[in-house]
Amino acid sequence: MELVNQFSPHKQGNKFNYLILAILAVMYAPVLWHWYDGWLNKSIGIEHEYFSHGLIGIPFASYLVWLKRKPWQKLSYQFNYLGLFVVALAGVFFLTGVSEFVNFSFTLMIIGLTYFLKGKQGLKLFWFPLLLIILAVPNSIPYLITPYTLWLQKIIAGISGFILFHLGFNVTVNGIYVAVNGRLVEVAPYCAGLKMLFTTLYVSLILLYWRDLLNQRPKPFILIIMAVITSVMGNIIRNTILAFFHGAGYDDLFTWFHDSWGGDVYSALTLGVIYLWVLWLETWQLTPRENNHQESEVEEFNFKF
Amino acid sequence: MSKAKFTYPLPVLLLLILLGLLIIFGILPGYLQGGKWQWLELGTPSNTPQLNRLRQEGITLTGWEKGEGRPLNLGGKTWLWQTFTQGNTTIDVILRPQPYYTDKPSVEWTDLQNLDIKASYCLEQMYEKLNAPAVNVFPDSQEPNLLEIIRQEDVSRDTLEKIINSLPSLCHSAFGINRTEGKNSLIPRVDPQNWDTDAPETFTFTNDAGKNITVLLQRGWNEKQTVAMVNWYSWHGGGNYQPENWFFHDLFAQLKQQRVGWVAVSLRIPLSPLAEITPIIPQAQTLSREVQRALEQSLQDNR
User: Given B188, B216, B233, which residue is the final one in a domain?
Assistant: First the structure.
C-alpha cells in the first residue's frame, strides 16, 4: 500500500504542475522580459530581431498549452531520469551566465521538464507549442549563416539591377553592389531576406495549425514552398525599391523603407500574401484517398507466398 | 489513511532539489541586486585600448619601411590602410580593428571583393575636400566650401588643378579636368567598383605560439594592377578567415568572463599581371606570419 501514500498525481498533480510553472517563471521571466524588450525596442541586435516572431509565437504557444491542460492532466506521471538529466543540463547552461547558453537552457528546460513529467506522451501532446517556442528562442544561427548567403546576395543584386535596367535606369551591377545613377547600394548579408524568410515560415506554421491544414498532405508542403517563393520574391522587390530610392535621391524614403516602419508595412503585406495562399489552399477539394487500396495490394502480395 | 504522511518519489525530490539550487545560486543573486543579470552584460575585450590604438597607429613590420597610415571607408566600414616597402616591393595592409565590443566580424571579405582601395580612398578624399571649408585650399575665398566653387560657370582650370593637387599625392592621377559646353569640370578617372576578385583558396600558417591560422587567399585585379589578397581575422593568440571560428573562440572565452577582440586584416602582395596565385603561397605565409606577429604584439594586454 505504500504507493497510495506516495505522491499522487490526481490529488497533488495540479499543485505540482503549478509549482513547476512558478519556478520556471521565476527563472526565466527576466530572460523573456529581455527578449521582448529587444524585439519591441530593437535594443539587442540584428540577430535577436531574427526571432521577433516570438512576439506572437510564445503567447500563442502558451495559449495552446492552456487549451490542452485537461489532456495533459490525464496523462500519467513518468518521472524518468533522462528528463531529469536534461533539466540538470539546462541548469548548467543557465548557470554559465552567457546569454547564448542561457537562451539555449530555456529550450532544454522546457523539453526536459515535459519529458520528465509525462514522458513521450507529454512531448507528443505538446509538440506544436514546444516547436513554436523553440523556434522563437534567440540564438546565433542567423549570424553563423551570413558567410553562406553570398550567392543569394548576388542573385538579389543581379535581379534588382535587371528590373531597374528595364525600367529605364542607368544601372551597373558588380557582385553584391548595385549602382543606380552612380550611387552605390550594397546588398549586405542581412539584406538577403533570411529574417523575412524565417518570419514567413513561422507564420505559415501557425496558420497551418490554426486552419487545421497540418494533416491535409500535401497542403503543408505546398504552403511552405509558396512561403519561400513569396518571401524571396518579396525581398528582391524590396531591394529593387531600395536601390531605386537611393539612386533617384529619395534619401528620406530610403531611410523610411530601410530603417523605419516602411519596412514593417512591407513585411505585413508579405504576410498578408501568405494568408491569401492559405485561403487558396483551403478551397482545394482533396479527393479522399482510397484507404483500402494499399491494404488490398499488400494482401495480394502476401497471398502469393 | 486520509492523513497519511506524504512522500515524494526520488526523482521528484531530486528535481525539486535541483530547481531549488538553481534558484538560490542562479536567480536569487540577480533579483537581490535589482535585476542585474550576468547574461545581460556582454563584457568588453580586455585589450580594447590596444584595439583603439591599433585603429590610429597601425602596425610596424620589422625590416619594412612603413608608409603613412590612411583611414579608408569601404562599403560603409572604416579601415586603416598602411603600405610597407622593402627594396622595390611594396605591400598593402588594410586593418579593421573591432570598432565596438558588440561588433562581430561580418564577412568583411565580401565587401572587399569588388572594391579598389586606392580609388575608394581618393574619391573619399575628394568628397571630404569638397565639403570642407574652402579656405583650406584658397585662403582668401569667400565661399563656404569647394563645392560652391566648382559649381560656378567660370571656374578656371587652374582652380580645379589646385584642388586636385591639394589631395594626397597618390590621388593626383585619380582626377582629371574636362571641358564641356564651355565649362570646366572635375572628373574622376578611377572607379571604386573597378575591382575583380577570383581564384579563391585557403592556406595555413602557424603563429609564434604554434597555433594554425587558416586564411583566405584570392587574386584581386583591375587593368592597372594584380595582387594576391590574403584575408583573415586576427586576435591575440590566433586567427582564422571564417567568422564562426572567431565566434566560438569568443563564446568559450565568455565562459571565463573574457572576450576575444578581433582585427580584420587584408594583406595585398603585388603579382605580375594576371599571374597564377598558387606559387605565391610560401611568400604569403611568411608575410602573413609577420603581420600576425605584429598584430599580436600590438594586441598584447599589458595590464
Answer: B188
